[in-house]
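Final report, closing paragraph on structural work. Over the funding period we assembled a curated collection of sequence-structure pairs, and we close with a single example.
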Amino acid sequence: MAPTLKSYLQVFPILWWCGLLLIASAAVALFPFDNMSFAYLIKPNVLAVIGNTLGIGVIILSLEFWVGYQIFISGFWQRAVGRAILIHALGGVALPATIAFGLILLVYPATIVDDHRFQWDILFMLLLLVILNYWLANRMLRYQLDSSADSKQKLISDRDRLLQQIEFLRTEIAHYKNDAQQYELLAARTDKTVNGLIEGKNILTLELHELRMENSRQLKRVQQLEDERNVEIQARIQAETRSQQLLLEIAECRASPHQNSNAGISHGGQSDVVFHFKVNGAEIAIFEQDIAYCYGHHRKGEDSFQEIVLMDGTKYHPALKSLSDLLRIFPTLKHISRNYLISGQAIVKYEMLRRNTPLLTVLHLRERIEYGESYRRKQPGWKNWLAGQTAINQKKIAAMSPEQLPLEEKNIVDER
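Its predicted structure, as stored:
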């Protein structure tokens, strides 16, 4: 196990030594313990000695921690015992004692240094440093012995595991040998089988030649059938085309009463319905028969937004309160959802979803719109209107050239 700072903290318990340093600071102030009363302990000069000793002790303890860590990570007690002893003596005892003596002369007053008991303090400090380094060396050696024991136990476990793997491999080798013998027997039987297959191959070659001749005759027959099928497909396509034309004519016939009524409304009033508003100081006039759809956005706390899109793609923003205002101005528009009013002439196609919900494709709109159920309930005859108007618009689109179609409408037709 490689030595690390975490493992060194197990060897050098720093918190334990900090507590011991606090006790030692008090002991230095009371040494040689001829007066240990509480009144003597709380004297200012005694407390100053305790504080100064504690500060010096923190510096010395930090130096001891660093010296011990260098010896620990270098493994000197395992590789070079003499070097470890020399570092303990110089870096762990001599250097800290010299630094401590200099700090004592710096921080303590002359009365304490000149006291006859000061030499006992120095001897006590040297004794503590020797004991600390001796204890630290023993802790390092014990850690190395424990690590060696753990490594030895790990090696023993690895050896046992390797022995088990070797035994397992021997068993596997025995199985492989048995499989090899069986493979040899199988190979011998396979050789006999191959000889038989070669003979069978010669027989099959002759049969294959006969089958190819028969296949050639069948291909000629298939070609004849394919020609007949193509004729049938052409006839069916013509029949389907005629059927679609009839369906469109039926849809027009069903929608004709409603279209006639709408036409009457259109001739009676739609061409006269016009909406005037100003944009940048200029007055704009919008006729109802020119509108493709209207869009409205209304949310609480937000400004209302309306957009009128004409059949040629032109867009206007009338700045009204809601779509209801536009519906009152243009009554023939269909309210199919919360946000859309559409004109029947702008419907390109539609498809029915689940629950009989139409999904409309509207001119100049890139997304398709659902015809809401609540709006369909308010509009009787919406199915006939939708089918008839779509059939009429499809005929108009088919009669127009691609250059006459608006950009969005050409994209919709290409999708079909």
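Residues 269-415 form a domain with the OB fold (Dihydrolipoamide Acetyltransferase, E2P) fold (CATH 2.40.50.1020). The chain has two domains: 5-166, 269-415. We thank the funder for supporting this effort.
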